[in-house]
Amino acid sequence: MAFKFDLHIHTTESYDGHSSLDDYIISAKSKNFFLLGISEHDKFNGELINQLKNIKKNFFFYKGINILLGTELNFNGIHVLVYPSDFDSSSKVMLLKKKFASDALSFVELCSAENIITILAHPFRLKQFLKFDRKFIIEIASKTAFCETVNGRSFFSNVLSSFYIINKKTCLANSDSHHVYELGNAYTILSENVKSYDQFFDCLRQNNHKVVYSPNLYSLLYSRYLKLKKKVQQNKSGN
Ligand SMILES: [Fe+2]
Fold first, then answer.
1. Residue 55, SS3?
2. 10 CA to middle of ligand 1, Å?
3. If you measure from the C-alpha of residue 57 to the centroid of ligand 1, how many angstroms do you get, rounded to a whole number?
4. How far from the centroid of its chain's Cα atoms is residue 84's Cα?
5. How many CB atoms lie within 10 A of CB 50?
6. Of 6-10, 35-39, 171-175, 225-229, which range is least confident?
7. 54 CA → ligand 1 middle, Å
8. What pLDDT, on a 0 to 100 scale, did the predictor assign at position 139?
9. CA of 202 to the centre of ligand 1 (A)
10. What is the β-pairing status of strands 65-75 and 78-83?
11. Sequence-ordered alpha helix ranges (H) in the chain
12. In angstroms, what is the span from residue 100 Cα to ligand 1's centroid?
């Protein structure tokens, strides 16, 4: 059996997200996903934190699907997905982010010492490729637990990742969805069923999973349309 998952999803709680958590859950169930990782920009999803006050451990069953609560932190252009093992550690993650606002390397080293899972998101996306030294990105990739070598929104970055990192690091594929139509554009398949945070990441470390890149043309066009619409709105409000 295939256990599909995606650890890079933005809901409307992110400034640039267009779909609600409920919409993602409905879509994920219809596409036979086994687990979704919710990773808002520079914060943890407030709806989940509020709904699950009594649940302490990360990796939980919610509205019919497994969920991991994470965040995507931006260190001056280096993006790191972070998944702590319990909810209490989410505030620790945000404090560490404050402390190392521009030092992604120190941040991922500390997370690793604290057993907090980090994933380097879309290395070599055009902006990163032009801004950072390749050796620097590879060094960060060697210190994060995993590397998102396939990203649903980044063809160019995926190709470069395959040259630089793919044989050196445990790789993941994520959609980086900002609306439900992007869900399924890239995902990872786990070879076995798991029921806890530790089991899930142990299984990934064994490297028996498969990465899938399967972009849907309609979703790419819709993303373009949303970007254009936002630009037009910004121009209007600027006038
Ligand atoms: Fe993202």
1. coil
2. 7
3. 23
4. 13
5. 8
6. 225-229
7. 28
8. 92
9. 24
10. antiparallel
11. 21-30, 46-51, 88-99, 104-113, 126-131, 134-143, 155-164, 197-205, 217-238
12. 20
Sketch out the chain's domains with CATH numbers.
Answer: 3-238 (3.20.20.140)
Residues in the chain: 239
- CB-CB neighbours of 66 under 10 Å: 20
Could you tell me which of 30, 31, 27, 83 has the C-alpha nearest to residue 58? 83
Mean pLDDT of 66-72: 97
Q: What angle in degrees, to the nearest 10, is found between the helix axes of 104-113 and 88-99?
A: 150
Q: Which residues 6+ apart lie within 8 Å of 92 measured at CB?
A: 84, 114, 116
pLDDT of residue 167: 66
- HEC states along 88-111? HHHHHHHHHHHHCCCCHHHHHHHH
pLDDT (mean) for 170-191: 96
Helix axes 134-143, 104-113, angle to 10 degrees: 10
Task: Write the pLDDT tens digit of every residue in 110-143.
Answer: 999 999 999 999 999 988 889 999 999 999 999 9
Residue showing tokens 């319990």: 86
Q: Quick check: 172 and 4 in contact, CB under 8 A?
A: no
Please give the distance, rounded to the nearest whole angstrom, from the Cα atom of residue 85 to the centre of ligand 1.
20
Centroid of ligand 1 to alpha carbon of 35 (angstroms) = 17
> 135 C-alpha to center of ligand 1: Å?
22
Report pTM: 0.94
